[in-house]
Amino acid sequence: MQTTLRSQAASTVEVDGDSIVIRIAKPQTADGVDADQAALLQFAARADSFQGFILWQRYAAAYQVWQAKVDVADAAGADGFSRVYDPLCQTAASYAVLTGSKQFTAERFVDRAIACMERVPELGKLMRDGVLTPLWFHAALAQTEAVLDDDLLAVIDNEAAGRLRGMGGLSKDRVAKTVNGIVAEHDADAARAATEAAKARKKVIATPVDAELSDVTITAASEDAALIMKSLDAVAAGVCDDDPRNKQSRRSDAAVARLTGTPFACRCGNDGCPARLSEDEIAERCAKIVLHVVARRDTLTGDSETPAFLDGFGPISAEHAREVSGRTDTVHRELDLGDLMDGTAQAGNNYRPTAACDTAVRALHGQCSMIGCDEPAWQCDLDHVQEYDHSDPEAGGPTCPCNLNPKCRFHHGLKTHVPGWVDDQIVDANGIVWTEVTTPEGITVRAQALNSWLLPELGLLPCTHPAPAGAATVRDAGPGPQREVTRTQAKHRYRMQIRAANRRARGAAAAEFACWGEPPF
Questions:
Q1: Terminal CA-to-CA distance of the chain, rounded, Å?
Q2: Could you give the CA distance from residue 176 to residue 144 in angstroms, rounded to a whole number?
Q3: What's the maximum distance between 2 C-alpha atoms anywhere in the chain?
Q4: CB within 8 A of 80, min separation 6: which ones?
């Protein structure tokens, strides 16, 4: 059985006069008979889809109260808006009392209600209709805050709502990147203002976490932040397999070492440690770091304001792309999609894509093709959707953009080693590339390639490969990857660390009290 993620035929919402009646279909489990797994997952995944409808109704109610107070202020003259207690403040104050929340929290709620009804009503309707969850709606709303022109905002609102409604499977990351790209395309001033405001917010701050640790936050340009993370990973990669630290701990120690000018060392404790951590080795690894920005040629020449895409971040404005292009450490490589007509696989190895094909596929999808995963495309594997048959290549899936998409190492392994996971890739009549994923429970989710707006020509190029001659040979993928420790062991280890930290804290407190002597009572 195959169902779609949004199939909730038995679930209804009725607004009857002064009442809202919501009926959510709940899977029934008969005695001794397990409920259908697909139905259970559907319920677990989408039973919250009505929260957006309820929040929209709450926003509408708060908006009506605010509007009534605005009318009173209008009747009183302009002075009604010059006082500290303006209509928004008054509405929020009443809301705060009823909900037991802070005035700031209440004002943010009312402000979002006004934005939902006035600034981005079409995006608000997506939340009302269950297409966007409240979390996704707020992510979209945040991307529009810098747009000041009401006419431009209406265009952005309509285009964003239309694109999101037709994109298929969504996530917070996909929603934010989609709206961000539309804002950057239509309102260069807003994008520029956001960039300038961000530059003013550059800072380095240290915030205590507990008695032993502090957080150091570095606010930098998106491309510089990405380079910092890649550099830290390059430094931390020099340790041997016996280093006891996890990835985040190694990053932290590598950052401290680089910033303070001290050596970064492996902590395995082995006399014959093979770790290569000399300055020359680190410099060699850092020299190999590449940060990918995909931009159209007319964007870089200034003839177009089409946004670019920064791998690991998302859409950036055309002006930002030109700034990155002008950096002294930037290397330009042109991608001519016409090269794909001459072949998409390497001449000596049909399994490997050409450089143009590899770049085009990663640029089109932008990130892992599994919905909900935002692993950057250039950190993913390229996967043949229909499996490549090494023994009989003509019988298997072709090495072509129509049959390739990026998958992070986890999801690539999941598809390869876990039975029941099936994905497919479709190019529709308009040249839009869609990826379909079917879970072992039989639930199918379809989603557009994230950056279809950036490379609309790619799906319109005719494929030069013949259709597969038959089904690919099924091969044993071998045993799946093994965890170093089981989930239970990891959970127990985590709890032991928490308990140990609590005991240390209690011991320190007891020692402090002991030095005071006997209490005077």
A1: 74
A2: 10
A3: 92
A4: 72, 73, 74, 86, 87
C-alpha span between 35 and 189 (Å, rounded): 54
Residue 356 has pLDDT above 80, yes or no: yes
Query: Parallel, antiparallel, or unpaired: how do β-strands 3-4 and 443-448 relate?
Result: parallel
Residue 24 phi, psi (nearest 5): -110, 125
- Residue 123 makes CB contacts below 8 A (sequence gap 6+) with 116, 132, 137, 140, 141, 157, 160, 161, 164, 179
Say whether 187 sits in a helix, a strand or coil.
coil
Block residue for tokens 């491309």: 223
Average pLDDT over residues 127-144: 92
DSSP reduced 3-state for 251? helix
Distance CA 297, CA 319 (A): 13
Q: What are phi and psi of 433, to 5 degrees?
A: -90, 125
Instruction: Compute the chain's Rg from CA coordinates.
Output: 27
Contacts of 49 (CB under 8 A, 6+ apart): 8, 130, 133
Q: How far is CA 380 from each of CA 190, 281, 340, 370, 486, rounded to the nearest angstrom?
A: 32, 25, 21, 11, 25
Closest alpha carbon to 45 in 8, 77, 14, 2: 8
Helical H segments across 342-486, by residue range = 355-365, 409-417
User: Per residue in 58-87, pLDDT tens?
Assistant: 999 999 999 999 988 888 775 555 567 888
C-alpha distances (whole Å) from 103 to each of 90, 92, 95, 106, 110 are: 10, 7, 9, 5, 11
Q: Identify the sign of the CA torsion 491, 492, 493, 494.
A: positive
Long-range contacts: 51-54, Cβ < 8 Å, 24+?
A: 51/133, 51/134, 52/127, 52/128, 52/129, 52/130, 52/132, 52/133, 52/134, 52/137, 53/13, 53/22, 53/127, 53/128, 53/129, 53/130, 54/20, 54/22
Q: What pLDDT, on a 0 to 100 scale, did the predictor assign at position 1?
A: 32
Q: What percentage of residues in the chain have a pLDDT greater than 90?
A: 40
CA distance readout (Å), 47 to 6, 7, 36, 396? 10, 11, 16, 39
Contacts of 153 (CB under 8 A, 6+ apart): 119, 120, 144, 147
Residues 6+ apart with CB under 8 A from 330: 324
What is the SS3 assignment for 474? Answer: coil
Among 339, 325, 411, which Cα is nearest to 375's?
Answer: 411
DSSP per residue, 269-280: --TT-----SHH
**What does the alpha-carbon distance between residue 285 and residue 264 come to, in Å, rounded to a whole number?**
14
- CA gap 345, 356 in Å, rounded: 9
Shortest CA distance to 236 belongs to which of 213, 206, 261, 257?
257
Of 322, 365, 460, give the one whose Cα is nearest residue 174: 365
Question: How far, in Å, CA of 404 to CA of 412, rounded?
Answer: 12
What is the Cα–Cα distance from 137 to 141, expressed in whole angstroms? Answer: 6
Better-scored residue on pLDDT, 196 or 303: 303
Q: Which two tokens stand for residue 155?
A: 């265009």
Q: What is the pLDDT of residues 172-207, one digit of tens each?
A: 999 999 999 999 888 877 666 666 666 667 888 888
